[in-house]
Design goal:
Oligomer: heterodimer
Distance between the termini of chain B: 15 Å
Structural class of chain A: alpha/beta
Number of helices of chain A: 24
CATH topology of the largest domain in chain B: Rossmann fold
Strand order of the largest sheet of chain A: 3-4-2-1-5-6-7
Shape of chain B: globular
CATH class of the largest domain in chain A: Alpha Beta
Largest sheet of chain B: 6 strands, parallel
Strand content of chain A: 15-25%
Radius of gyration of chain B: 22 Å
Largest sheet of chain A: 7 strands, mixed
Strand order of the largest sheet of chain B: 2-7-1-8-9-10
CATH architecture of the largest domain in chain A: 3-Layer(aba) Sandwich
Number of helices of chain B: 16
Number of strands of chain A: 30
């Protein structure tokens, strides 16, 4: 049992701020608790003797053995809320649900109050929900410590929401659709307990089969990934993360005061965490229902059985749009279908058993295809006809599903005529929709979750690196008046074992010549200035400079830089050995630190692939070898790395290792907020980092 | 016999006032009677009713003088004055006499007179009263304050040295960034010495002198400070404009440091991005739009003040630019800090020719 099990399964609950006054939140909570909660409810309010028939205590210390109170629900006005929480901590109550609003969400005074609340909660090690929360619910004990107007029905879905209003809406909606819940929590301002804590709790809860969440931001993305990755091995997590669009992100920022973070980081982070991300509320519950009601498939092949040609085609399209595929039947199946189905039927997938099919024909066809070893799941699509009873059909589908142990979804395309059929299917946990695409999507979610469960997590490799040297280089920026470092920090890469071309940064033409002579062949020369971001655009890069022209080129580069920006801080010129660009492929490897998920690695092919086609892929670091390797395959232009059009393939192992080493570098140094190696040239014999640009957070150093 | 030191510079906003007053105070602390004068008032403010340079006011307060303002600042180098001088309605000889007369009054019974020059070396030429002319008239030694960025700046120093001739006591570089300091000390200063331009030293650029506090910025702009607890004592040196989407904005904000972010009050995503970047020390919101209260709460949590002005973003940027450029904090603390820097970087006693 998790740390929060008493929060959801308390014996004694105290309402601090219980009230009888009509329309008050204190009354709503007390009433809700009295209505269904099995345990003992205690009322605390110094201004009342009795609340709704309960004797009222002046404060929490007046209650008999206050330390045995499991949950204190705080509903008092904001200016005394923190005191009430402190008192609860003092008497030894572990779980506090703070309904009171008027904290960080309301501005300056509220922010000060929230800071105080956090200090008190930390002092007493409280499990604190909220503040600004609608409350918590748990159906096994009938606990309804919310001020919503509906109690959830019992079920195996646990649900958390960053919006309290959305909880009330969902409960109202769920009541009509027989969607049952185990626990529900409204997260409020997430001062102490956040999404990660509840995911961890429900992961350990045997009565929770599916975890649902509505989130606007994630406090600690890295921690969330770690927790969720473990939980999703047993319990699926389905999330709606709002604020996807720019306008949505702005709305979310106004609502929570937190930066929404980049959509790409969420996409990558939530995917790595093993959660199923959905975009609409409908999908959220579609996924929840099928995940809680149906077994997982062991493949992705779908069989479709229908009495209607058109809807059969629509369903086939939906399969095509999903990550599922249409099953190819074995010969035995064809044979059996040929025997049992009418002549006019189409026995190929999608199986059309034609308009005059009664429930028995469905039963026969469905059992046949589900017995086929090439079939992992099935969709039954039926239109109402005079010879078909949806009620009977529902019964045969339930039977066939249970017999086969494979997941099935239905599309009984009717309104009134579905009637009792709906209840029979729901009872058996088989999702039923009017729209075939929803049924297919649901099955797709099952298949996706199956592949998440099959994932094996490998720890990121730790390379032997020169961390002290790297730290030294980074610290060199601290007494400059910029946050940026460029090629002058190339040694940083060397320190982490990322190969760079021979060369040096010099500040006189004579030194430049000396370096070029040492290299002994044509060199690349680049202006080194933290103020000049796009060196090549201003003529700050010269390629193929023979040693005798190095002096003049030095002069040219400095003049061009000064012409571009008179007061630019020019550190000098980098003289570098030429990378073999003909044999090599230019790639880009970078990192941008996301406010929520931390270091987000980016990989792609350089040049037009990244600039025009934006063909890049991202992962939250640290990444393991398989993850780094998968990044290489993710990009559309991946075949170019494998040696398309007669070229030799690049040294894939070296490229993968470089991704891992950069992952280690940016994980070791949180002060690096962005970093680009562009280009990272990959050849058949290895890789070389040719250019580097990074930004540091001075305060993290 | 009174020793007179005139402090001048080749450009404005280089820390002349702080250096002048710090030197004066150092002399006072060494037991000398010190007087102060700024013959041409150029930093004009008319907030107090009469148009005056604000530097002499600070000098009076800081060095405890009881001299009259009009004595300390005989010429108000105002636009009207300049126009009249060009039209031939000001007599250079009379002006010169007035300066000398006031100087003599002020310098009576002092061991050292510090005379602050005007914004630039050539200012005053229309009435034959450049800082060089004044040094001549008052028989003053001249301290030349310069900034430094690139070796090319030596041209300017040499030209000024030429103009000042034997009056030049030496050059003092101020506000030199860490990245330029080595080059200055290793190459440029020896070079100047070799051309017979004495150099007293170079003072590093320090943050509390380079920037302006958020509180001062708010006062200069007439902005409301919306946060209660977030500290407004932090210094800002530059500004950045939040005009793009949240994530692009975050990239930009992270690349800057000690900056104030200017943006519309209705751009929550830009504001929260600014709160994520440690280089952004304050938010300046325009258009009179109050931010979302959750953003305000967040700012308190991050200890980043939020200022609000009624003007639009374009106008606000111009104002901020002005304030950041010329509005370096001038107060007692600045002078104390400058005194510390001088003690660390320069032989103050020999600069002031204090003989113990």
């Amino acid at each position: 049992m998790g740390r929060l099990s008493t929060l959801f399964g308390p014996e004694r609950v105290a309402v601090i701020g219980a009230s009888e006054s009509e329309g008050s939140v204190g009354r709503a909570i007390t009433e809700n608790l009295l209505a269904s909660y099995e345990g003992e409810v205690l009322a605390v309010n110094p201004n009342a003797d009795e609340v709704l028939g309960l004797p009222c205590h002046d404060d929490i210390t007046d209650v008999d053995s206050p330390s045995s109170i499991d949950v204190a629900v705080v509903v008092v006005p904001p200016h005394i809320a923190v005191d009430a929480i402190r008192q609860s901590g003092e008497v030894g109550i572990e779980n506090v649900v703070v309904i009171t609003a008027g904290f960080g969400e309301t501005g300056s005074d509220g922010a000060a109050r929230e800071r105080e609340l956090r200090e008190v909660a930390e002092e007493y090690d409280l499990n604190l929900v909220g503040p600004n929360s609608l409350g918590v619910m748990s159906t096994p004990k009938g606990l309804n410590a919310t001020f919503g107007n509906e109690m959830a029905t019992e079920g195996d879905i646990s649900f958390m929401s960053q919006s309290g209003a959305f909880v009330t809406a969902v409960l109202d909606w769920a009541a009509e659709r027989d969607v049952g819940f185990k626990d529900i929590v409204s997260l409020g301002n997430k001062a102490i307990l956040d999404e990660g804590d509840f995911v961890a709790e429900w992961g350990e809860d045997p009565d929770t089969d599916v975890i649902l969440g509505y989130l606007e931001d994630i406090d600690d993305g890295e921690q969330f990934i770690r927790t969720a990755r473990e939980v999703t091995q047993d319990t699926p997590i389905v999330l709606v993360k709002s604020g996807r669009t720019d306008a949505g992100a702005s709305a979310a920022a106004s609502h929570t005061g937190a930066m929404a973070g980049s959509e790409r980081a969420y996409e990558a982070g939530l995917e790595q965490a093993g959660t199923l991300r959905v975009e609409s509320v409908q999908e959220l519950f579609d996924y929840a229902q099928i995940l809680s009601g149906q077994p997982l498939p062991d493949g992705e092949e779908v069989a479709i059985v229908t009495n209607a040609g058109g809807p059969g085609v629509m369903t086939t399209d939906a399969v095509g749009d999903s990550d599922l595929s249409l099953a190819e039947f074995t010969d035995e199946t064809f044979e059996e279908l040929r025997e049992t189905m009418p002549e006019a039927a189409n026995i190929y997938n999608p199986v059309d058993i034609i308009g005059d099919a009664p429930a028995e024909r469905f039963e026969s066809a469905l059992s046949t295809v589900l017995a086929d070893e090439n079939v992992s799941m099935a969709v039954v699509v039926a239109c109402p006809t005079a010879v078909l009873s949806f009620e009977e059909l529902a019964e045969v589908v339930v039977e066939a599903q249970q017999e086969s142990g494979l997941p099935v979804a239905t599309t009984l395309m009717g309104g009134k005529s579905v009637g009792e059929g709906q209840a029979i299917l729901t009872e058996a946990g088989i999702p039923q929709y009017f729209d075939p695409a929803r049924a297919v999507n649901g099955l797709d979610a099952l298949s996706e979750y199956q592949s998440i469960q099959a994932r094996e997590f490998e720890a990121p490799e730790t390379f032997d690196v020169d961390r002290d040297r790297a730290r030294e280089i980074l610290q060199s920026v601290s007494h400059r008046d910029t946050n940026r470092l460029g090629v002058e920090a190339m040694d940083l890469l060397e320190a982490y074992g990322i190969p760079t071309p021979k060369g040096d940064v010099v500040d006189s033409p004579g030194d430049a010549e000396a370096v070029a002579e040492e290299i002994g062949e044509e060199v690349v020369m680049k202006i080194v200035s933290p103020d000049i971001l796009h060196k090549s655009d201003i003529g700050g890069v010269e390629v193929g400079v023979p040693p005798e022209e190095v002096r003049d080129t030095y002069e040219d580069l400095v003049v061009r830089a000064r012409n571009y920006q008179a007061d630019a801080n020019i550190i000098g010129v980098q003289v570098q050995e030429m990378a073999d660009l003909d044999a090599g492929t230019e790639t880009i490897l970078g990192m941008n630190r996301d406010p929520q998920f931390g270091p987000l690695l980016l990989f792609g092919l350089g040049g037009i692939f990244v600039e025009v086609l934006e063909d890049t892929t991202v992962r939250v670091a640290p990444v393991s070898e398989p993850e780094a390797s998968a990044m290489l395959d993710d990009i559309e232009s991946a075949p170019l790395l494998k040696g398309a059009r007669g070229r030799d393939p690049v040294d894939r192992a070296a490229l993968v290792e470089t991704v891992q080493r950069l992952s280690q570098l940016v994980t070791d140094f949180p002060a690096i907020v962005e970093l680009d190696i562009n280009p990272l040239v990959a050849t058949p014999d290895g890789v070389q980092a040719v250019d580097l640009r990074l930004t540091l957070d001075q305060e993290e150093l | 016999m009174t020793d007179t030191l005139l402090v001048t510079s080749v450009e404005e906003g280089i820390g002349k006032t702080a250096i002048t007053l710090a030197l004066a105070r150092a002399a006072q602390e060494a037991g000398k009677e010190v007087g102060y004068m700024k013959p041409k008032g150029t930093r004009l403010q008319s907030a107090v009713g009469k148009t005056r340079d604000e530097d002499p006011m600070l000098a009076r307060e800081l060095l405890d003088f009881d001299a009259e303002m009009h004595e300390m600042e005989p010429i108000v180098y105002s636009p009207t004055f300049i126009k009249e001088a060009v039209r031939g309605r000001e007599n250079p000889d009379d002006l010169r006499d007035r300066v000398i007369e006031n100087f003599e009054d002020l310098s009576a019974d002092t061991d050292l007179m510090v005379v602050e020059g005007s914004d630039r070396l050539e200012t005053g030429g229309i009435v034959d009263l450049t800082d060089g002319d004044i040094a001549e008239a008052l028989d003053a030694r001249v301290l030349l304050v310069c900034g430094y960025a690139t070796p090319g700046d030596a041209d300017q120093v040499l030209a000024a040295a030429d103009q000042l001739g034997d009056r030049l006591a030496g050059v003092l570089f101020n506000g030199v960034t860490e990245s330029a300091m080595d080059e200055l000390a290793d190459d440029v200063m020896p070079f100047l010495e070799s051309r017979d331009v004495p150099v007293f030293g170079a003072l590093p650029r320090v943050q509390d002198l380079a920037g302006i506090t958020v509180g001062d910025l708010a006062r200069s702009l007439g902005a409301d400070v919306l946060t209660n607890e977030a500290s407004t004592d932090t210094h800002v040196e530059r500004f950045t404009v939040g005009a793009m989407g949240g994530n692009k904005a975050l990239d930009q904000f992270r690349r800057t440091r000690d900056a104030v972010m200017v943006s519309g009050g209705d751009r929550s995503e830009v504001q929260t991005a600014a709160l994520e970047a440690s280089g952004i020390k304050a938010l300046l919101l325009t258009g009179g739009f109050r931010p979302a209260s959750a953003v305000l709460g967040r700012a308190e949590k991050e200890n980043v003040p939020i200022l609000l002005v009624q003007s639009d973003t374009r106008t606000t940027i111009d104002r901020v630019e002005d304030v950041l450029h010329s509005g370096r904090t001038r107060d007692a603390e600045t002078v104390t800090r400058m005194q510390e820097l001088l003690d660390d970087g320069v032989d103050v006693h020999s600069l002031l020719e204090l003989s113990e």
